[in-house]
Specification:
Blueprint lengths: L22 E6 L6 H9 L4 E5 L1 H9 L4 H6 L3 E4 L16 E9 L1 H9 L5 H11 L4 E5 L6 E4 L4 E4 L3 H11 L4 E4 L2 H15 L9
Parallel strand pairs: 1-2, 1-4, 2-3, 4-5, 5-8
Antiparallel strand pairs: 6-7
Helix pairs in contact: 4-6
Amino acid sequence: MQFDPDYSEDSPSPVGAGDGEGRIAWCITGSGHYLNESLALCERLPDVDVYISAAGEEVLAMYGLPLETLRQRGLRLFRDKTASAIPVGLLYERVYHTVIIAPATSNTVAKCALGIADTLPTNLFAQAGKRAIPSLVFACDTEPVVVTKSPTEWFEVRPRAIDLAHAEALRRFEYCTVVGTVEQLEAALAQRLAELGLAWNISSS
């Protein structure tokens, strides 16, 4: 499968999806919640591609992380530029063994919990579930009070009951792990790598 360069980098070659084979699809949504910390973990992973929603592109720029900066860091990017989320087809070519959404907005979490797939990250999540491919979601709103960072300062937010309910509903999905902190994200990633017989990229730590 070859992709238009307007929305993807060079497409990865289909590979087997057995233990230790394949790649990781890391999705970025329109959240700045521990965005830099999430990307630092992303860069430590082996064989990872980054999928960015339209809102994710805007937020990355707001936090001083334009796409060119990510490319310079060696990350291969896929952009949300097709109505049918064409790059998701790589899940059916056994390219990816894991899908990660980090950080995930409350909007993305709600869509995933309700079965709505209308962005690149939510399409990846839905199709990964149908393919029994494990997903890991770093949800922004999992506690009554959350400390987060805007592009300029730290502040408190108080997730609504509906936001917390959607995160809790997502925890009950098959093949899905939901975490609420960077520490939990790192631990879940380490566990997934161990399951696959893989290790962190030491050179990027």
